[in-house]
Amino acid sequence: MNPFKVTICIPVYGVERYIERCARSLFEQTYENIEYIFIDDCTPDNSIGILKKIIDDYPHRKESVQIIRHEYNKGLAIARTTAVANATGEFVIHVDSDDWIELTMVEKMLLMAIDNDFDVVWCDTMIHTQEQQSIYHLKFDNNPKEMLKAIYQGKIFGWFWNKLIRRSFLEDFIAYKESMFEDVFFSTQLLLKPLRMGYISEPLYNYNCKNRESLTASGKNVWITGIPNIQHCYEYLVYNHSWDEFKAAFSKLILKVKIDLLKSHRYRDAQSFYPFANSNIKNYPINFPYSIVYWLGLNLGLFGRIIMRMYFWGKRLKFLHHQR
Predict the structure, then answer these.
(1) CB under 8 Å to 121, separation ≥6 — which residues?
(2) What is the DSSP letter of 44?
(3) Other CB atoms closer than 10 Å to residue 210's CB: what's the count?
(4) Exposure of 286 by Cβ count < 10 A (0-12 exposed, 13-18 middle, 19+ buried)?
(5) What is the pLDDT of residues 204-247, one digit of tens each?
(6) What topology does CATH give the domain 6-212?
(7) What is the pLDDT averaged over residues 38-50?
(8) In 10 A of CB 322, how many CB atoms?
(9) Can you tell me the distance from the alpha carbon of 46 to that of 264, in angstroms, rounded to the nearest whole number?
(10) How far apart, in Å, are the Cα atoms of 97 and each of 57, 80, 107, 240?
């Protein structure tokens, strides 16, 4: 018997090339008592049609599957929240529908949670890119607050999906239309709770980067789009009387956005965006001469903005000269 139910939450949007591999890895789990909630976020392709055909191949799983359709596209973060709101399992695992999981993932993670009375169990991740695959080994600390600081500092990732979570810890979560750092806001809400956590040093989750590299590879200053979620994190920390404890670590996150604002020539915005972090730019891992130029740009007011403009215009003129 498998008395503990696990709910797997899967948002679906534009994944017709990948949904079969994902779904089969879910339906072929060695653990039996699993509930599957797929959220159709108004996918424009045939992802749901393909999914329904695959479900027919697993008649013993069919009654455990729900497909819920949003009335309009709400984004990944809200799709996950919809899934959790409809979940009935004692534990929840998030899986993105262009990824896949090892067939023993649910069984191994649940066994560790039950045997040790853990609220969250983490695992390692196999990352698949166009060129290679590599294991991401989590730098685990069983102190939730230390894990959150490590996420803010960029030492570890705050992914939704490399963990099994007791559902009762997810029921009050807030989600917004996604942008960068949505996983950081998720981690902020989770890791401020009094959790007991465990870790399996084995890559049980397969992360498909082949479908997600275009944004970061484009050279665009994508961190700017994360400003709303940084604000949500800040407000949540303040509301929970935790801002002073996390302020130093949080500044590393803020600096990512400041640098993108500077690169986008939004110098005044960069200076005024959480200005307490401006002086910390000297500790940020940036090569010379950017380390000096960025420090001046953030900390010397109007004079700093003039220096930044002169520096970037100089680089632009040098580039145009070489193009002749």
Answers:
(1) 109, 110, 112, 113, 163, 164, 197, 198, 199, 200
(2) S
(3) 13
(4) middle
(5) 999 998 765 443 444 467 889 889 999 999 999 999 999 999 99
(6) Spore Coat Polysaccharide Biosynthesis Protein SpsA; Chain A (3.90.550)
(7) 96
(8) 7
(9) 38
(10) 18, 12, 20, 33
- Residues 191 and 240: beta-carbon distance below 8 Å: no
Assigned token pair, 92: 């929840």
> Mean pLDDT score of the chain, rounded to an integer?
89
Give the domain ranges of the chain: 6-212, 218-323
Question: Residue range 90-102: average pLDDT?
Answer: 97
SS3 228: helix
- Residue 141: CB atoms within 10 Å: 15
In angstroms, what CA-CA distances link 322 with 314, 318, 319? 12, 6, 5
110-119: long-range contacts at Cβ-Cβ below 8 A with a sequence spacing of 24 or more?
Answer: 110/4, 110/6, 110/31, 110/164, 112/198, 112/200, 113/164, 113/166, 113/198, 114/4, 116/196, 116/198, 117/196, 118/196, 118/197, 118/198, 119/165, 119/166, 119/169, 119/193, 119/195, 119/196, 119/197
Q: Which helix (H) or strand (E) holds 219?
A: none
Task: Name the pLDDT band for 322 (thresholds 50, 70, 90).
Answer: low
Q: Express each pLDDT in 194-216 by its tens digit.
A: 999 999 999 999 999 876 544 34
- Give the tokens for residue 101: 């999981």
CA-to-CA distance for 35 and 61, rounded, in angstroms? 9
Q: Decide: 122 and 140 in contact? Cβ < 8 Å.
A: yes
Contacts of 169 (CB under 8 A, 6+ apart): 119, 120, 190, 193, 195
Give the chain's end-to-end CA distance (angstroms, integer): 74
Q: Which of 71-85, 284-298, 309-323 has the lowest mean pLDDT?
A: 309-323
Output phi, psi for 192, to 5 deg: -85, -5
Of residues 166, 167, 149, the one with CA closest to residue 158: 149
* 132, two tokens: 């290679």
Return the structure tokens found at 129: 């890119």
Scan for tokens 């200053």, then name that residue: 221
